[in-house]
Design brief:
The complex is a heterodimer.
Chain A: H1 3-43, H2 52-67, H3 70-76, H4 78-85, H5 91-115, H6 119-127, H7 132-165, H8 174-183, H9 188-217
Helix pairs in contact in A: 1-2, 1-5, 1-7, 1-8, 1-9, 2-5, 5-7, 6-7, 7-9, 8-9
Chain B: E1 9-20, E2 23-34, E3 38-43, H1 49-56, E4 64-69, E5 72-73, H2 79-88, E6 89-93, H3 104-114, H4 119-132, H5 148-161, E7 166-170, H6 178-195, E8 198-203, H7 206-212, E9 215-220, E10 223-229, H8 230-235, H9 240-246, H10 255-258, E11 268-275, H11 283-291, E12 294-305, E13 308-318, H12 322-335, E14 338-344
Parallel strand pairs in B: 3-8, 3-9, 6-7, 7-8
Antiparallel strand pairs in B: 1-2, 1-4, 4-5, 9-10, 11-13, 11-14, 12-13
Helix pairs in contact in B: 3-4, 3-5, 4-5, 5-6, 11-12
The complex binds adenosine-5'-triphosphate and magnesium ion (MG).
Amino acid sequence: MSDWELLQKLLGPALWDTIWTMAAASFFALLFGLPLGLLLYATAKGHLFENAWINRPLSAFITALRAVPFIILAVSLIPLTRLIVGTSIGNSAAVFVLSITAIPFYARMAELSFREVDKNLIQAVLSMGATRLQTLREVVLPESLPSLISGFTVTIIAIIAASSMVGFIGGNGLGRLAISYGYQRYNVTIMIAVIAVLIALNVAVQWFGDRLAQKAARVK
Amino acid sequence: MSTRPKAQPLLELKNLRRSFGGTKAVNGVSLTVYKGEILGIIGRSGAGKSTLIRCINGLEKPDSGSIFYKSRDSAGLTLEESRQMRRRIAMIFQQFNLLSSRTIIDNVALPLKLAGMSKIARRQKAAELLQTVGLGGKEQHYPAFLSGGQKQRVGIARALAAGPDILLSDEASSALDPETTQAILQLLREINRKMGVTIILITHEMEVIRAIADRLIVLDKGKIVEQGAVKDIFARPQAAATRALLQTIIPSLPPALAAQLRPQGHEAVIEFHLSGAAANTPFLQDLQRDTGAIARIIHGGMDTIQGERQGRFFLALNAGDKAKLAQALAWLAAKGDKSEVLGYV
Ligand SMILES: Nc1ncnc2c1ncn2[C@@H]1O[C@H](COP(=O)(O)OP(=O)(O)OP(=O)(O)O)[C@@H](O)[C@H]1O
Ligand SMILES: [Mg+2]
């Protein structure tokens, strides 16, 4: 098989695997990261639901999780992955480890976004007689939307980067392709193709995220 | 207005105190706000104005003292009751505090949404209010597209949405240019007159007080140092803090003239203030007729505060001899609010 035929045969499925893992892990990052971020923000000192008993342990746990480099975390999670997903290789396993690392990542990003909301605005709405929950729903969430979108874009890009590394421990996708053909067999064509596709993917995600964030910002 | 005999107290503060660390931001303030008035609270930066207003709308808890709203002590209110009270006391801000994620109409409708009003009803009410503040047709715009003056109009419409008894304004015009400031102040005056909303106006600019306030409270270092009808305080300020704040809008002797002042000379330079009926008389002619002294105006002019004529002049007065000068000065002192010899030329 020529390089070109090999590429045609392998690139499509690998790209599909990467997109699938990326989408699923991003979904979980949003599903769990956003509420966690909101909890971190709201329970922090000087905020609406200030509560050190929730905030301190949660914050420490998230920091600890974020302190472990992804590849080490992924390896150390293998037993847990097997327990929960049933296998430690393949797409589902990759989604699991990627989610575990992306959730605290996005929780922190979201927390930062919430903190950007002008405190005076929150006070203004409280002075209208809003409850604290109403204030979260009517002010904090909608006002931080553009920033939440930007943060989510960064998270997706981090997930794409990490998903390539999953190739080392049995995940499918572009990473695996690059490792087994580009690295182990030193196939330059495949290596370059994978890099080009990854760049295109990143650019597309960033472009789309920027567009969305700008639209949400309501300034143009 | 303080002169209104049957004025009905709406809000009463009794010996309110609030400190931050060692700073006594509000240090024993007692005051009464009467229904339908525009009360100005003025003070230098750091005088405690914002802290006071934040105590009134419940964003700050006073260390001691009490707040009576419609004769009910706010300390005894449940959480829900104090939320209800906050809806009766609306606020507008220097930085407008509009939600950038919502259209103008939804910003205005927000207090109604918080109170649980249906979407159709609150949009209708908000549209009416936008008409009132002169922003009809801008309903679907986002705040980023509005000028400062327009944003403040949205802020005012939003404050009015819940039908408040009191409107608190914390430097609401301070971020605006002079012309826009006047337009916003006139709008507030109109709202006060037509809707009967009581207004508490916080500012550090006498110009704002002058434009619309009925009654004035001067705050300095957390304490009330002077209060009364605006025209009385403008004509005869007592406290040093008041005089300092008035400096910005009353004429002072131009430096070139001040530099010419000598301890001796044949003309006395006098700062002369007069108000009320006296301000409507040809006082320079009367002075000459009664005392023979001839005075000329070297600086100053007439003003109208709350419909009262007030004059602030610098006169160069030629009386001839010392005795005649004393006589002329006595005449001026009896006629005006202030007559002070600054020097001679
Ligand atoms: N949250 C706070 N923490 C610490 N100190 C505060 C706080 N709020 C106000 N102060 C202090 O209390 C004093 C009064 O502040 P306040 O904001 O009420 O003044 P102000 O009259 O509104 O001034 P300005 O005209 O500058 O707005 C100031 O010395 C200020 O530094
Ligand atoms: Mg202030």
